[in-house]
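A note on notation is needed here, since sequence and fold are reported together in a single record. The reader may check this reading against the record printed directly beneath this paragraph.
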Amino acid sequence: MNLDVGIKSRCHINTNADGDRFVGLKADTDDAVVYFPLGYRLPESEQEIKRDILHLFAVLAAFTDKNDKLIQVKKFEAPQTVDFPINAYMEIINYYMDNGYYMEKDPVYKTKDRGKVSWTKTIQRQRPLLQQNPDTKGFSPVYTKYTVRESTPNENKEITRIHQHCVYESFSKMGWIFTPYMPPMAEGNFDVSRFLVVLRDKLGNTNNDKEKRLFQSMIEMLKFLDEKTSERQFYFGTDNFEGVWERLIDRVFGIKNKDDYFPKAKWRLRQGRYKEKRPLQPDTIMIYGDKIYVLDAKYYKYGATKNPDDLPNAASINKQITYGEYIYQTQSMQNENLYNAFLMPYNMADNMFDFTEPYENVGEAYGEWKGDNHYYERIQGILVDVRYLMYHYTGNPKRNIMKLAASIEKALKENNGLLPGMTADES
């Protein structure tokens, strides 16, 4: 892999056009490219970009499932599942950078006046002084020197050679994210079957958490290499980032139990029992104070194109109104306490709208069949900065919930001047 190429040139921001939807890492022995999602803003410094790459991997690991990991390698070919154990590779690199190669330590015994005493060897090797006990009038041995156990690294152990092979493999694929340094190639045969036997034995006989993580990571790497020996290219990521976008939105803003907000439906059958059909399920229900916000995460291109064709269509609009109507009726809501919004990605540092905040409104959608008498019938189009969201899915979400709620409510008030069918420029 060419380590002289700048890290920013290895990064690509998706357009979400056909053939440009993969988010994650694609690499082979010659090169590697990291694909960021539509609307992502790369920082300027290489150090920050490296941090963003690692954070992207963490987001993908946390929010992709088996279905998301299907990618289309070439047009007309069957999708391929991506099982590259990126966390294992990262663990091996991190351990090496913090500790060097893993080495077992052989015991060494020395004569000292303090340390980890081996009483068996002290009794065998040291000559005690005899001290009389005034109570029993007997004599007790007193040692002024002890045989102390110490340890010294043993570089010839097989586990060290296995780690050297794994470190070289990790750096050859992923080390460029951390450093241009490349450790030397390990000596000896790369015997996956033998290595796995040794590592599983070590894993079963250690209580050290750091060693457990290392041994497990090495096992995962070797299993991957054993299965993928014929493939030069490897992948970590997804062609379906819209699923990740939905789960990110739900993690940051949503409540855990949404069942009470699902519009349900049944069949009344002439013969047989009633059959309930799968209910409509809103992406996210956000609650702030006594207000409810129905959120639909749309990984659409409008924030990058400003093209109305890239906005949610009538089917999505009508579905959102149905969600709102169901909640309005079943939860006995006040009009001013129920809101509706689409959340779409954008880059707040570089966009066609001159927006500069993490949450910005572009207008509202409504259904001509319903009108806009209720707040929930006016679905606010909110652009969300992608990088901001990806860095704020952990921790206390209250601050972001408050910000989004304020943005939606402010937008609804400001959009009161928009007549049906008009844009802000026309009103």
